[in-house]
Amino acid sequence: MGSASVVWFRDDLRVADHPALDAAVRRGEPIVAVYVFDEVSAGVRPLGAASKWWLHHSLLALAGELDARGLTLTFRRGPATEVIAELLAETGAGAVFWNRRYALAEREIDSGIKSSLKEQGVEARSFQANVLFEPWTLQTGQGAPYRVFTPFWRACLGAKPPREPLSAPERGDVTPFGGPLASEDIASWQLLPTKPDWAGGLREAWVPGEKAAHDQIDAFEHSGLGDYVDDRDKPAVDATSRMSPRLRFGEISPFQLWHTMRGGVSGAGGAAAYLREVGWREFAYHLLYHFPSITTENMRPAFNAFPWAKPEPEVLHAWQQGLTGIPLVDAGMRELWQTGVMHNRIRMVAASFLVKNLLIDWRVGEAWFWDTLVDADLASNTMNWQWVAGSGVDAAPYFRVFNPELQAKKFDPAGEYINHFVPEAGTPAYPEPMVDLGESRKRALAAYEQVRGS
Fold first, then answer.
1. How far is residue 355's CA from residue 448's CA, in Å, rounded to a whole number?
2. Has residue 396 got a pLDDT over 70?
3. Does 432 reside within a domain?
4. What share of the chain is helix, strand, coil (3-state, %, to 5)?
5. Which of 42, 43, 76, 253 has the maximal Cβ count within 10 Å?
6. Residue 409 CB: number of other CB atoms within 10 A?
7. What is the pTM of this model?
8. Is 241 marked as binding a ligand?
């Protein structure tokens, strides 16, 4: 076996605070950097269209960062188990390093590869890089996984503080792999929309990549953090960090965010509030690891008896396209379609409207968000939909039905957000509400009573 080191990039498209890359640099042998586009291995969920757009551009940005350090990012497509084996045969590498993933299918793939490599005498190591606290290190006093966020976050804050972020390697630190190595053209992966090209709004709203991620968090820290507590629920105000797609694709690590904001960990200001949101993401991964069925099944079995309505195509289409006649819901759905994200407060409102006012199964909405969000994250997306539906752990009470009209009065009182995305609201061109909010709320409560009775 040769001595090259393979660094397998996945949801960690960065060079700073990248433990697998750092380990390869420290090993001191030539480095093979590879990204494997795998949508065919058993259990792996194919990316949605918006996430594919982001992935394309983030991979190009990563290739540029590696190139600046003398490394070439090799692109391969296919089952990861086969691709990594082929790469080892081509390079004679003696080590493979990667950063850990937490969904069940990905864990099984990684575990199988690690066992196979060790049997061949190849060094195989995985690292903690994308969560602050490994899911198996935190448990309740009864030795069980946490199911409620507040005690979970309290345990996080009481645990050993997260490590310091690792520095990016310098050009002189690395030795590139010298042999010929075939790489696919990622244009052949067809990650970008072409017929039609619907990504114009995404291009206006985002610049994927590690450098853009750090520019963005620096701007937020210096100009947005002070007003974060007061303004984060106002959709018309640019008051959030917009880090969710950056974290999803690993352009920035939670360790970097933690240490950027660490002065406020124990306080009550913007930094503490912001880190609590990072903690909510940690909770999602905690649940994903311990309860992998959360991605497709109700966490509360009683909800298997919930009388979901059959999603009529025209009703679902109206929700998806922002044509429900409910201005705040429509504004959110149009923001999602145009920019690939939706303000978090409005995500809850739009999700609640689908699940509770229209009685459509949360999995239908989750699938739409999976396809249209640039930050579509398996852990967070499914946990948050179950939270709104009331079917998950730490769930909103079954009787909590977000009223879009009251939410608009409270968080968009001047109508700036609605007017931006739904300029025809209040005119004859705007459709009538597809349901009566009061009557549909009563239907939802009756349905939830049926679940409680079961």
1. 11
2. no
3. yes
4. 55, 5, 40
5. 253
6. 12
7. 0.96
8. yes
Tell whether residue 266 is among the known ligand binding residues. Answer: no
126 is in an annotated binding site: no
In the listed set 290, 310, 344, which residue is the last one of a domain according to the structure?
290
Q: What CATH number did the domain enclosing 276 receive?
A: 1.25.40.80
Give the separation between CA 20 and CA 394, rounded to whole angstroms.
34
Write down which residue in 106, 129, 152 finishes a domain.
129
263 half-sphere exposure, CB direction, 13 A CA radius: 6
Are 53 and 193 spatial neighbours (Cβ–Cβ below 8 Å)?
Answer: yes
Q: Are residues 319 and 239 in the same domain?
A: no
278: tokens are: 């990072």
CA 433, 439, 440, 442: dihedral to nearest 10 degrees? 160
171 belongs to a structural domain = no
* 105 membership: H or E segment, kind and range: helix 104-119
Is a pLDDT exceeding 50 seen at residue 266? no
CB of 61 closer than 8 Å to CB of 72: no
Per-residue confidence (pLDDT) for residue 262, from 0 to 100: 74
Residues 109 and 155 in one domain: no
User: Across the chain, what does the average pLDDT equal?
Assistant: 95
CB 48 within 8 A of CB 199: no
* Number of domains comprising the chain: 3
Describe the strand order of the beta sheet including 73-77 as a list of residue ranges.
73-77, 31-37, 5-9, 95-99, 123-127
Residue 435: how many CB atoms within 10 A of its CB? 17
Domain hosting 256: range is 131-166+212-290
- For residue 253, say whether it is annotated as part of any ligand binding site: no
Instruction: Output the pLDDT for position 265.
Output: 46
Q: Give the C-alpha separation, 233 to 217, whole Å.
A: 19
Structure confidence at residue 452 (pLDDT): 80
Residue 205 lies in a domain: no
Annotated binding residue 240: yes
Torsion of CA 167, 52, 283, 62, to 10 degrees: 0
**Is residue 18 assigned to a domain?**
yes
Give the CATH number for residue 73: 3.40.50.620
User: What is the tally of helices (H) and strands (E) in the chain?
Assistant: 19, 5
Q: Give φ, ψ of 10 to 5 degrees.
A: -135, -100
Asked whether residue 376 is marked as a ligand-binding residue, the answer is: yes
Q: Are residues 102 and 162 in the same domain?
A: no
For residue 1, the model assigns a pLDDT of: 43
